[in-house]
Amino acid sequence: MKDVISQYRIDKEPYYRAVSDEIAVYDAAYSVRMPMMLKGPTGCGKTRFIEYMAWKLQKPLITVACNEDMTASDLVGRFLLDANGTRWQDGPLTIAARFGAICYLDEVVEARQDTTVVIHPLTDNRRVLPLEKTGELVSAHPDFQLVISYNPGYQSVMKDLKQSTKQRFGALDFKYPEPAIEEEIVSHETGVPREIAGKLVSIAKMARNLKGHGLDEGISTRMLIYAGNLIANNVEAKRACRVALAAPITDDPDMRDALDAAVTTFFG
Amino acid sequence: MKDVISQYRIDKEPYYRAVSDEIAVYDAAYSVRMPMMLKGPTGCGKTRFIEYMAWKLQKPLITVACNEDMTASDLVGRFLLDANGTRWQDGPLTIAARFGAICYLDEVVEARQDTTVVIHPLTDNRRVLPLEKTGELVSAHPDFQLVISYNPGYQSVMKDLKQSTKQRFGALDFKYPEPAIEEEIVSHETGVPREIAGKLVSIAKMARNLKGHGLDEGISTRMLIYAGNLIANNVEAKRACRVALAAPITDDPDMRDALDAAVTTFFG
Amino acid sequence: MKDVISQYRIDKEPYYRAVSDEIAVYDAAYSVRMPMMLKGPTGCGKTRFIEYMAWKLQKPLITVACNEDMTASDLVGRFLLDANGTRWQDGPLTIAARFGAICYLDEVVEARQDTTVVIHPLTDNRRVLPLEKTGELVSAHPDFQLVISYNPGYQSVMKDLKQSTKQRFGALDFKYPEPAIEEEIVSHETGVPREIAGKLVSIAKMARNLKGHGLDEGISTRMLIYAGNLIANNVEAKRACRVALAAPITDDPDMRDALDAAVTTFFG
Amino acid sequence: MKDVISQYRIDKEPYYRAVSDEIAVYDAAYSVRMPMMLKGPTGCGKTRFIEYMAWKLQKPLITVACNEDMTASDLVGRFLLDANGTRWQDGPLTIAARFGAICYLDEVVEARQDTTVVIHPLTDNRRVLPLEKTGELVSAHPDFQLVISYNPGYQSVMKDLKQSTKQRFGALDFKYPEPAIEEEIVSHETGVPREIAGKLVSIAKMARNLKGHGLDEGISTRMLIYAGNLIANNVEAKRACRVALAAPITDDPDMRDALDAAVTTFFG
Amino acid sequence: MKDVISQYRIDKEPYYRAVSDEIAVYDAAYSVRMPMMLKGPTGCGKTRFIEYMAWKLQKPLITVACNEDMTASDLVGRFLLDANGTRWQDGPLTIAARFGAICYLDEVVEARQDTTVVIHPLTDNRRVLPLEKTGELVSAHPDFQLVISYNPGYQSVMKDLKQSTKQRFGALDFKYPEPAIEEEIVSHETGVPREIAGKLVSIAKMARNLKGHGLDEGISTRMLIYAGNLIANNVEAKRACRVALAAPITDDPDMRDALDAAVTTFFG
Amino acid sequence: MKDVISQYRIDKEPYYRAVSDEIAVYDAAYSVRMPMMLKGPTGCGKTRFIEYMAWKLQKPLITVACNEDMTASDLVGRFLLDANGTRWQDGPLTIAARFGAICYLDEVVEARQDTTVVIHPLTDNRRVLPLEKTGELVSAHPDFQLVISYNPGYQSVMKDLKQSTKQRFGALDFKYPEPAIEEEIVSHETGVPREIAGKLVSIAKMARNLKGHGLDEGISTRMLIYAGNLIANNVEAKRACRVALAAPITDDPDMRDALDAAVTTFFG
Fold it and tell me: Is Nucleotide-binding one of the keywords UniProt gives this record (chains A, B, C, D, E, F) (predicted)?
């Protein structure tokens, strides 16, 4: 089973540009194994942050992209059938608890309630995971920690974490980085010059003001990196912005015009 | 099967600070094996109380975190397949009934109705559990008792226990502890000085007045312990309150301001 | 299979206090094996009555607590897998039909429609149960009788028995017993003196007037027995009434006050 | 497989009292194997009629009580697992088609649409039943006929047969029998004198006028037989009418009074 | 596998009375294997037409009656278990694609969307069917063609084919035949004299005007054949029309009167 | 496993008529393995474009027609049972990731959310696919790329890609081709003369103006090819337009008239 866990180790330092004291706070939270919630919009760096922390703490990281069809079994495990009958197969949460990984449940609010309730006994002082189907009570490894992500601009009344779940987590707020930092990130990740990266960040700044006025979300750092990548591969800048920044997120003609105008301002 | 039950024994006295005569009433209820319902908000100590009582009575405790996707089979048991065909595997409720544990169904109202109806024959004078899939009629062990938790501020019309279920239980009301007691608990659990603990309790008192005026729930004792833990790990007090008390439960700017103001009053 | 049925025999006469001619009418109904419906509020003695009749008629009694996730297979049976392939396992209804038990479907209205339709061929002159999955047509044993319970104050428009089901049953109405009889029952079941039992019955009488004016159901005989049990175990009477009569059924402050006032009138 | 079908043969002439030319019309329909629909209220004799016709035509009768959780597999068949792998098990419709029985789908409208569509190829000139799971195309036996029942006072807009299903059937209308005939039936089935039977029929006549004015359905012939049975077993007539006619179908105090008044008129 | 396909061959010419150039158009469509949609009301001859064309083109015809509980697996195939483990069983669509049959999906709109999407790759120039469960990519046999039926008067907004499905088919419109042709059909199919058949057709014409004014659908050619069949079996004409034309499709007294009046006009 | 992937190679250059710089942009996107979204109406050439690009890049192409009943298992894979127990079978997405194909998810918005979330880890810098059921973490082959299609005129509020999914893709907009190009395509694909093809394109142009004024979608290039095919097979032009252009998409008499008028204008 050592092999199962070793594939989740992060050998190379991920590129992460800190924006505040988030690394120190997370260190303190991990030292008491406090369950943590990373809050913020899509594509702002939450996943990269947890990868960085896992590397810094030298702990394996098991990431699960949650979805509304995911069941508790997908997290906890299930019986498989082999030549000698059924055999229990640990799910990612059980592997993490058993071998001492950080378990990162991405967009946990998408999951059905049973997946969120199944984590409760791992988040209070018992730190146990009852495998009801086998009758085993797994005591979490001392290194185990539970982390979830949460997009506050995203939850409907119908689909939100229960208060009794939220109260089991400390929380760190994430936003898009400040312009200078974001410019540094885009340039680092794509290889385009700082000047080009700066123009892309300026376009994003204008577009983010459209959030709630025709756009559901602003343009994320990830999208700027896509645009930068196309430019670095010889696609003309305005065309690259169309393909990577505008076309994916809106088909509304007015929004398209507004985004084109922003692009023209900087790449006119 | 002795091993199955022994893992549910509580060897070490759990820290529990009584707030009223709840221990004596529970003793009386257990002496006639009356099914009990623990009512109160999330994080106020219901789970800790039942752990304490199980330790005091020297009975194993089987806790099940209920959820809306849980089925009667998750409680009662199911058939597994091995080399000789199907084999019955007792669920947690059946193990508790068979071996004489206290079975604690946490947030039972979240479960589907079949999980609540399946407990009926265990709560009247028959004290039996029919395993319909095997045709066995399990008579409960003399030590068996059923306990459920229930959060009164939480149930919708759509999702509540049926009257015919409620009437099968005696009930104990729980609240957040009085300030002096809560201060004692926070200090004991985190190691922060009584003065710091007292400030955290005062912040919680202010925040609990916001319940129903922008907050769905007040700040629980558990959250105060989280904040204390961060402070004890050298996170600055105001930052710790933000991470542990405010950020997890609200994203509303007004509520954030109100909570920040409360924090500044004591840690300004 | 004799063992399967013998566990459902009732060896000891259950305590049942008749309130009218219900025993004679049931005897007549059983003599023509008329399917019967026991109607009345929760906790008024329907289950005890059918246990008593099963003992009196010396027939095994198979009780099934119905619920909305119960399927026809839970009643009729299913295929299990063993070393030689699938093997049919009779469900409780099939066992009752095959071996001549009284089958009592408690709160049948909670079950999905397929469970109610599956009983139709057992309730007309054919008295057969087709096991569609095996192709067997089970002819009911001459002793077999079907009994269901039904709480009239409880059914919504959405969830009621179909007329074509109701018309297949004779029906007996049950109510809470007259005060003198209820006092006798509470004293007999708990060992408290008739005077204490009488006070509990008087409290129940006042509380039952609140049904429909803030309480969904009145206080049942079962709850009075719970209160008596706590008193017999040295819990102070007012506290016992709070734990056993008020706290389980309401969290409304006004209702709590009204119930407390009723308790104070008799135990002040 | 001969044994499978032989259990569906009706050896003894069922008691059936014809009310019109329904026997002759059915004979003509059967001679061209026209699929038939029996329409009428619950408990008016549809099931008894088809049993009689099956006996008269000397064909086996396979009756399926349809319900909303029934699937096409419940009608057509399924794979079972035995020591040599999966084995196909014909469902009741397939057995009927293969061996030439009359297949009677009782309350077919309750079934899910797939059960109604699965019968389509059996109702047009192909008279085939494709078993999609085995790849077999079963040609119906020359004796096979499909019959369904339908309660017109019962269907909601949400739950009705599709036009494309209805048009595949001839239809016979059934009502409660004329008073003289119903009196004859009740007396024959219960052994009570014609005078008592006549009074029961008169009560039914009054009660049937309440249909749509507080009662969902009238009192059926079946219920009159229940009342007669209790009377024949020495239950007093008014009590028998309460148990068999009023209590099963209504809890409304006004309706109870109206039915009691009708009973008093004849058994006062 | 030759046997699987041979049972779908049509050896005898089906009786089909052409009403327009539908045979020539279909021939052209088949020559380029254009997927076809047959549109028209229930019972107007769509199924008979495709049977005739399959006979004329000498291709096997696999008909699937679609329904809302049908899954993609019912069309494409599934794994079965035998002594050596799982074995793939082709579904009707896969058999048709593999062996070159015409696959006729009757009332395809009733099926769940996955059944309609699964046909997409078979309807564009790739003509492939990916069996995702086996990883096989079935290239359609050169003779394979896909045909669906569609009742335009029938679809609700909720349940309609997607535009991206509709655009993959050529379409032929069907109506009830002209009176002279319909008279010829009814007489041919039932053996009643042309005069009787003509009266039945006239009744149908009157009834079809009631569509949308109290009747959901008109009387189909199939129903006229039913009526003719009963008349040919010595049921009196008015009674036959009641059983075959009126009773199956309406219980509304006004509609019954209107249909009776139409019948009396011709068979009075 | 080489055989599994080789069946997805495209050996022959597909006919694709470029309309803009889409080939160059796609080349750049592929060079950084940017996930791509092809947006545009049904039948405008998106599928043909991706087939062409796969041929040009000499990569295998695995196309999956998404639907609302598709589960994550249909994409990722599942356990099958064989003589030695369960065996894992890669789904199409896993095959593509493992062997380096372009995976094209057609109409991905139709799929349930779990299918869209399952692609997330393949679209960020990790490029991994966790097979939770086996515990394997598949690292994508360097050649792997993910492509989805999306019809903007088609999505309801209820059914749209989540922002957090959209932001993971670059996007290319597709429209129906310009008239001259579309004429060239229709003529090339069907063999009809340019003049006939031009008339068909002119009819389409008129019909596309009806979109949103009675038609849900315009007439696609694919439909023009169907009409051309019928004409090339000697169906008269007006009849061919009726069968291929009008009848499949509308039953509204006004729309039929409008389309007939357009046809008459050019083929009058």
Answer: yes
**What is the tens place of the pLDDT at every residue in A21-30?**
999 999 999 9
Asked if C127 contacts C140 with a C-beta cutoff of 8 angstroms, the reply is yes
Chain-chain contact of C216 with B163 (C-beta, under 8 angstroms):
yes
Beta bridge partners of C102: C61, C145
Whether A92 and F130 lie within 8 Å, measured CB to CB: yes
pLDDT band (50, 70, 90) for residue C157: low
Q: State the average pLDDT for chain D.
A: 90
Does C118 lie at the interface with D, CB-CB under 8 angstroms? Answer: yes
**Cβ contact B167–C42 (<8 Å):** yes
Task: Judge whether A114 is closer than 8 Å to chain B, CB to CB.
Answer: yes
Closest-approach residue (CA) in chain A for B91: A132
**Residue range D46-75, pLDDT digits in tens:** 999 999 999 999 999 999 988 777 778 889
Q: Which of A104, A162, A140 is nearest to B106 (CA)?
A: A162
Question: pTM value?
Answer: 0.80
Contacts of residue A76 in chain F, CB cutoff 8 Å?
none
Give yes or no for a contact between E78 and D133, defined as CB atoms under 8 angstroms apart.
Answer: yes
The DSSP secondary-structure symbol of B216 reads S
Kindly report, residue by residue over D181-201, the tens digit of the pLDDT: 999 999 999 999 999 999 999
| C-alpha angle F29-F31-F32 in degrees, rounded to nearest 5 | 70
Q: Distance between CA F75 and CA B163 in Å, rounded?
A: 45
Contacts of D230 in chain C (CB under 8 A): 25, 28-29, 32, 34, 170
Alpha helices in chain D (DSSP H): 2-6, 22-31, 46-57, 72-76, 92-99, 113-117, 120-123, 163-166, 179-190, 194-208, 221-232, 237-241, 253-267
Interface of E with D in 218-237 (CB under 8 A): 220, 222-223, 226, 229-230, 232-235
The residues with which D138 forms a beta bridge, in sequence order, are D129
CA distance D215 to chain C (A): 10
pLDDT at A156 over 60: no
**Residues on chain A touching B226 (C-beta within 8 angstroms):** 34, 170
Chain F residues closer than 8 Å to A81 by CB: 79, 81, 85-86
- Per 3-state DSSP, chain E is made up of helix, strand and coil in percentages (nearest 5) of 45, 15, 40
Q: How far is E267 from chain F (nearest CA, A)?
A: 36
Give the chain E residue whose CA is nearest to the CA of F155: E162
E positions 143-182 inside 8 Å of F (CB) = 152, 163-164, 166-173
Question: CB of D62 within 8 A of CB of D99?
Answer: no
The architecture in CATH of the region A2-173 reads 3-Layer(aba) Sandwich (3.40)
Mean pLDDT, residues A79-90? 75
Q: Please, are residues D251 and D241 in contact by the beta-carbon 8 Å criterion? A: no
User: What is the tens place of the pLDDT at every residue in E64-111?
Assistant: 988 777 778 889 998 876 666 677 889 999 999 999 999 999 988 888
Interchain CB distance below 8 Å, A28 and B67:
no
Q: How far is CA C110 from the centre of its chain?
A: 13
Q: Do chains E and F touch (3 or more CB pairs under 8 A)?
A: yes
Residue extents of the structural domains in chain D: 2-173, 179-267
Q: How far apart are CA D51 and CA D58, in angstroms?
A: 10
Of C63, C83, C232, the CB nearest to B121: C63
Taking CA D99 as the corner, what is the angle to CA D97 and CA D103, rounded to the nearest 5 degrees?
A: 45
Supply the angle between the helices E22-31 and F221-232 in degrees, to the nearest 10: 110
Work out the average pLDDT over A72-82. Answer: 81
E49-71 pLDDT, tens digit per residue, is 999 999 999 999 999 988 777 77
Examine the predicted complex and report whether its ipTM is higher than 0.95: no
